Every structure is written in C-alpha cells, then in structure tokens.
C-alpha cells in the first residue's frame, strides 16, 4: 500500500501501514458494523529528522518497515512517539528497531514499552493541556492531552502541515477492500466513540461531560486542521470534513451530558 | 497462606495448585527506590495448567523459569490474558516458543493483528464460560473494574481465588513526589499479601493508584459495580483476590472495604472538576 500524504505544505505527514477487516473479531468495532479500516503509523519529516507516531500492528510490520526505508533518507534522525501504550501503537517497535536506528521513544502512561535500544522517555501532559516538544533534532510537535480518553493518551499536532493525529478518537471511518473511504456516517462516528469511551455516559456530573465535548470543539472543530489521522480508521481529509465531523462529535458528547443531567 | 512449603525462586505458592509469578518493575522516587508488581498466576489442575496473564516482557525469563519450576516436565496448556496490553499479554510469543502446544484463551479479539502467526491458537472465551482443567475449573467473569472494555476476570474453583486484572490494584505505599501512575511498594515488600503488609494498606494509598491509573473512575460512581463485586465474592466464597498490580489480597473483607473506599475517595475529590483544566496551560518543553 502506498503511503497516503496528509496536510499542507512542503512536508505533509505520511500515513503508513495497511488495511484490515473489522467486524466481530476486532474489539474496537461496534456490533453490527463491518468492513475495512487502515491501522496506521504516521511519519512526520523535516530536514534530516523524522518522527514516527505509533508503529502499527504486526500483521503490517514488513510493510511499515519497507515504507520507512523508502521514505527516510540515509542518516535521518528518527524518534518515535507513542500516542498510547496499547498494542496497536507500540508492538512493532522491536521490528522497526531491528531495521532502523531510533534515538528516542516518547510515551505517556503505561508502565512498560517494548524498547530495544532507544531511550524510553516518559512524558506527562496534564489532561486538557498541551506541550510543545522537540521530538527529533529541529522537529517540533505539539502533544495534546485530550479530555476524551480512556487511558493516558496523546494527540500529536504537526502545526507545519496542519495535521492532528488523534490516536483512538476519530476512528470511525471505514473503507472498501482497496482502501477507498466509504461515505461519512454520523451514526457510525457515534457508535465507535460509544464503544471506546462508554464510561462517559456514566459520568455523574454533567459538567464533566460538557467539558469533554467543549474540548473536542475547541481543539479540533474550531482550529484550522487540514487532516485528522487516527490510529485505526481512515484519515479525515480536508478542512470542511474535519470541521463537520469534529462538530458532530462535540455535539454528540454535549448531548450525552444533557441526557445524563 | 501456605508460604513455608513448596516455594520456588520465581514462584510463590498461594494455595493448593496456585502460584504467584511475574516480577516488579522499578523506579526511583525522592524517598528511595520503589517497585510495582506485574503479576501472573499459574493454576495447575489434574489434567491441564493455565497461566492467568502472561506477565511483562521485562520479566520473560523469570516467568518462564517460574512456570518450569512449578510444572517440571508437564506442559503449560493455556494462557488467559485478561486484556491485550503489554504487561498482561506481552510474553505470549515467548510462552508459545517454550510450550508449543499452548492455547491462548479469553477475549482474543485483535490478537490476530498483533501476532498473526499465532492466529490458529486463539480460542475465545466469554463471561459465563468455564475451562475445565481437571479437578477444578476456571470460570470466566466480566471485569467490573477495568480499563479496556475487552477485559475479563477469572475465578479458580479449586482455590476460590478471583483474578481481577487491573482491578484492586492494591497499593501499599505512595509517594507524591513520584511522577508515576502505578501502584508501588518498597523494596522488601515484593510478593507479600495484604495480611502480611498489615497497617501499610490504607484507603489513602489505594486511592493514589486507583485514581491515576483508572482515569474514568474519577468521574463515575463505582458503588453499583462494587455491589455486583460483593455479590460475586459472596456467591463464590472468594478466599483470595489476585490483582495484576499490587499485593494478593488474603483478607477479602478488608480488600473490598479499602478498594471501595479508595474509589469513593477518588470520585468525591474529582467529580465535576474536569472543566477548568485547559486554561492557559500550553507550554514549551
């Protein structure tokens, strides 16, 4: 599968990885939904540096390593940022480290990451806040800690390309077997987020749920993002699509709060 | 607690046919070194043996040694990862290499993506299913306190031990200066039970770990979940509780009281306070 380029400017973000079927044998897929989804790692490149955000799943390990070899010039300084320490984010680290030199692995939460040689660097960002870091020499990214979460999670903003990598949120877009996205469907967006973040409906204080919705609105819908890249699910491409789908999610979350009240 | 007999270097016997394996990860707090358990439990029946959670890859060698010390020439037949995270499932490939007949049982969705070469070993089990291991059974239960929604708990009918994954992460030490979310203990407290720790087990200490590692419990009242847990403990006459992270609980009434108290404390201090987090908090590294 050819890497998909996301965002604006001379250094768009490259989506790496492959497709998988989703249905009853995939835990993040809601009941009654079936089809195909990309499971992705994302490569941000600038000059002689690069940051790989997540590492994909093992069934795509060979493909991801080949894509990295094709995209990275010899001598590129490579770091990895894990948006979560869950399997689909970190399990290809050993395979990547066998083939490429990785300087540092940034992660949040969790107690262990499968690092072989690189420096493991735990980073904590307060919920709702962000932190600008030089993740590789001369390459700055913005680490957001969203209120919409189950485990500790980072959303990675590449301000140069206006691309926001959203980990386990915005994971709702299906594709066909060739990777062509199916039309957006707001009901599917709600179903994916209900499954992953089911606790939100049980939150007692409506103002907590309202805060989650408001954060999605402020961080995504009201910003100038050209693309969203989730760990699984097809990317959301284009400012209008980003704004519309983020507004739908924020509105839905705010509605959960009203129902809870 | 029969801990004076049949002990091995890498496995502590908790009851007839049940062994505590795994290890501790280490960190350094301002007040000195601290540990946190990443535990796995081996249950040996008359015909089959099952490992509840695989342990962390950092402890791969110790887990393999512990299993071999207990089983000798016998095979490990099943591994039941309570959910697909590295500390709970990360040693599965190493276990398969050591025990070629090993089957992976439980909520095994997604595992074909993580280890495609193991796809033919996956056997789904759901809450209500029972795994007969000869003379005793492993019952599969829903996880009432969890992080990932595809988490399972398990109950051994032989020892009456309940395996609760990330629930009851029974902390017995805490250090506000430690930039970490995990239940920790001090050197010398590894593989001690809650009774052996005595006064070190407090609601305050348990709350420190519960609220930080299970973020959602800050905002959700888990009292109803604990009513279900209490019924389960009563109906199954649970004698031991085995969390993946923290001391084994051998005083079940105390464990229930402390865990519920911890979650209530976390909820009481956090609910309704999510909103003001984001004002002016962006900063450079």
From TrEMBL, chain A:
<dbReference type="InterPro" id="IPR036866">
    <property type="entry name" value="RibonucZ/Hydroxyglut_hydro"/>
</dbReference>
<protein>
    <recommendedName>
        <fullName>MBL fold metallo-hydrolase</fullName>
    </recommendedName>
</protein>
Automatic annotation (TrEMBL), chain B:
<dbReference type="InterPro" id="IPR001279">
    <property type="entry name" value="Metallo-B-lactamas"/>
</dbReference>
<dbReference type="Pfam" id="PF00753">
    <property type="entry name" value="Lactamase_B"/>
</dbReference>
<protein>
    <submittedName>
        <fullName>MBL fold metallo-hydrolase</fullName>
    </submittedName>
</protein>
<dbReference type="InterPro" id="IPR036866">
    <property type="entry name" value="RibonucZ/Hydroxyglut_hydro"/>
</dbReference>
<feature type="domain" description="Metallo-beta-lactamase">
    <location>
        <begin position="37"/>
        <end position="212"/>
    </location>
</feature>
């Amino acid at each position: 599968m050819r890497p998909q380029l996301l965002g604006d400017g001379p250094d768009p973000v490259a989506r790496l990885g492959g497709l998988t079927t989703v249905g009853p044998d995939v835990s993040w897929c809601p009941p009654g939904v079936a089809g195909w989804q990309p499971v992705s790692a994302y490569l941000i490149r600038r000059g002689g540096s690069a940051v790989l955000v997540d590492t994909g799943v093992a069934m795509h390990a060979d493909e991801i390593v080949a894509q990295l070899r094709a995209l990275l010039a010899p001598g590129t300084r490579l770091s990895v940022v894990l948006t979560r320490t869950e399997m689909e984010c970190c399990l290809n680290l050993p395979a990547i480290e066998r083939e490429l030199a990785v300087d540092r692995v940034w992660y949040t939460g969790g107690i262990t990451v499968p690092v072989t040689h690189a420096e493991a660097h735990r980073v904590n960002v307060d919920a709702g806040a962000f932190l600008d870091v030089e993740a590789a020499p001369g390459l700055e990214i913005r680490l957001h800690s969203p209120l919409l979460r189950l485990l500790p999670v980072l959303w990675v903003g590449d301000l140069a390309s206006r691309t926001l990598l959203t980990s386990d949120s915005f994971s709702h877009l299906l594709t066909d077997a060739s990777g062509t996205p199916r039309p957006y469907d707001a009901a599917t967006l709600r179903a994916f987020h209900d499954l992953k973040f089911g606790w939100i409906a049980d939150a007692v204080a409506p103002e907590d749920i309202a805060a989650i919705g408001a954060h999605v609105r402020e961080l995504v819908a009201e910003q100038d993002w050209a693309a969203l890249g989730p760990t699984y699910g097809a990317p959301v491409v284009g400012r209008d699509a980003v704004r519309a789908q983020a507004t739908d999610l924020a509105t839905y979350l705010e509605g959960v709060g009203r129902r809870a009240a | 607690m029969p801990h004076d007999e049949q002990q091995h270097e890498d496995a502590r016997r908790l009851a007839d046919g049940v062994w505590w394996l795994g290890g501790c990860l280490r960190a350094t707090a301002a007040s000195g070194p601290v540990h946190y358990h990443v535990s796995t439990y081996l249950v040996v029946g008359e015909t089959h043996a099952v490992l509840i959670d695989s342990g962390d890859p950092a402890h791969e060698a110790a887990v393999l040694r512990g299993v071999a010390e207990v089983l000798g020439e016998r095979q490990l037949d099943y591994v039941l990862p309570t959910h697909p995270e590295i500390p709970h499932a990360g040693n599965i490939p190493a276990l398969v290499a050591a025990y070629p007949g090993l089957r992976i049982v439980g909520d095994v969705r997604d595992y074909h993506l993580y280890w495609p070469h193991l796809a033919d070993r996956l056997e789904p089990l759901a809450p209500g299913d029972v795994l007969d291991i000869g003379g005793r059974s492993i019952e599969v239960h829903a996880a009432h306190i969890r992080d990932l929604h595809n988490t399972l708990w398990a109950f051994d009918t032989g020892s009456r031990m309940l395996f609760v994954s990330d629930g009851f992460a029974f902390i017995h030490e805490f250090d506000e200066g430690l930039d970490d979310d995990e239940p920790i203990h001090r050197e010398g407290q590894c593989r001690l039970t809650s009774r052996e720790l005595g006064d070190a087990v407090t609601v305050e200490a348990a709350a420190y770990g519960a609220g930080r590692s299970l973020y959602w419990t800050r905002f959700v009242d888990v009292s109803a979940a604990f009513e279900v847990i209490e019924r389960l403990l009563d109906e199954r006459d649970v004698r031991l509780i085995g969390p993946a992270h923290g001391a084994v609980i051998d005083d079940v009434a105390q464990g229930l009281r402390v865990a519920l108290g911890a979650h209530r404390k976390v909820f009481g201090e956090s609910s309704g306070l999510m909103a003001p987090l984001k004002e002016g908090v962006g900063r450079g590294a």
